[in-house]
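Minutes, project check-in
Item: structure for the 102-residue chain
Input as provided by the requester:
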Amino acid sequence: MVLQGKKYNMRSLENPQISADFEENMNIRIESINENTNTTSPHVNTYWEEIRDTIKPVTEEIVGTGNTKTKNQWFDEDCQIVTERKSEAWKKMQTRKMRITT
């Protein structure tokens, strides 16, 4: 079972109050980053990490997360084993064909 990454409940931004709260909170936090960043020579990666580390918690806090679904729920360990066996059988068949034709 493979879990997908976090999904945010972006539909909640259709609510004007939530959208306004999100925008206000983001503006406040990004202004804070701009004030605390060395403006003479900010390193791009450092600046990006600060913004990224701001966006994630604000989004989780205001927007919330959606339902995390698993990818390929039907493909379990048994399917993996059968697929590997099928692949091995295919490889053996291909090598036999090569020996016959040469």
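Outcome recorded: Residues 77-101 form the longest helix (25 residues).
No further action items on this chain.
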